[in-house]
Design goal:
By secondary structure, the chain is mainly α. It has one domain. It is about 70% helix and about 0% strand. The longest helix is centred in the first third of the chain and has 28 residues. It is elongated and about 50 Å long.
Length: about 80
């Protein structure tokens, strides 16, 4: 269980880090989404920065689904 929780925290940290890196990217280039919509390049950069975290999240979910449940039949009633 503890390993599963650690993998979940890694995935969430990657997502949060990707979001922060994307906003830093926009700030460094001086792009203000309120002035004009984001272009294709900005969306691609966002996907590259945020995507790995979602990949880890999907991997975590698949591993969690494969693990046998520690609950007994009495716990489910």
């Amino acid at each position: 269980m503890e390993g599963s929780r650690k993998r979940l925290l890694v995935a969430l940290a990657l997502i949060a880090g990707g979001v922060l890196a994307f906003f830093a990217f926009l700030a460094v280039l001086g792009i203000d989404p309120d002035d004009r919509p984001l272009g294709l390049l900005e969306w691609i950069v966002a996907g590259v920065l945020i995507g790995p975290g979602f990949g880890y999240l999907i991997q975590w979910r698949r591993l969690k689904d494969r693990q046998p449940s520690t609950r007994s039949a009495d716990d489910l009633r």
